[in-house]
Amino acid sequence: MNLIVNADKNWGIGKNNELLVHIPNDMKMFRETTTGHVVVMGRKTLESFPGGKPLPKRTNVVLTTDMEYEAKGAQIVHSKEELMEFLASYDENDIYIIGGESIYRMMLPYCKRAIVTKLDYAYDADTFFPNLDELEDWKVSAESEEQTYFDVEYTFMEYTRR
Questions:
Q1: What is the number of other CB atoms lying within 10 angstroms of the CB of residue 149?
Q2: Total domains, the chain
Q3: What is the CATH number of the domain that holds 7?
Q4: Percent of the chain with pLDDT over 70
Q5: pLDDT, tens digit, for every residue of 125-143?
Q6: Which residue among 21, 23, 107, 134 is least crowded, i.e. fewest CB within 10 A of its CB?
Q7: Domain coverage including residue 74
C-alpha cells in the first residue's frame, strides 16, 4: 500500500479541513500518481474536495463511522476491518491512502511507500502526519530537486519502509 501527502516542515497537513497550500505542480503529481488507482480517505477529506465529490477516474473509498453517510460514486466502509476486506481484492501497489490525519495514522503500518511533497515552511496547522524522519522503519529512497511556487520551496520525496 502507498500513501501520498503534502506536509510542511513540522509535518502539518491541514487547517480547518483544507490543505495548507495549493501548489499546481503538487496537484498535477497527485492526479498523475493516483488516477486509475484506489484512493482511501476519511469523510472530511472527501468533503474538502470541490463539491464534496469523489475524485474522477479513481476508485474512491471513504471510511466513516456514520452509518447513514452516502456519497455517490464512492464506496463507503464503516470500520478498519471492512476497509481491509474491501481492499483485499486490489493489488496493494494500486492503493493510495490520501488522508486525513486519522486515516493516515491508522493505515501507516500497512504502507510500504510514502510519496511526500515536503514544504520548506512551517504553517499554522491543526492536523499532522507522523514524522517519517523520526521513524526507524522509514527511509528516504528518492528526492527531487528543490522547487519553488511563488515564495514556497518544496521537494517531492519518496520514503520506503526498511
A1: 14
A2: 1
A3: 3.40.430.10
A4: 100
A5: 999 999 999 999 999 999 9
A6: 134
A7: 2-161
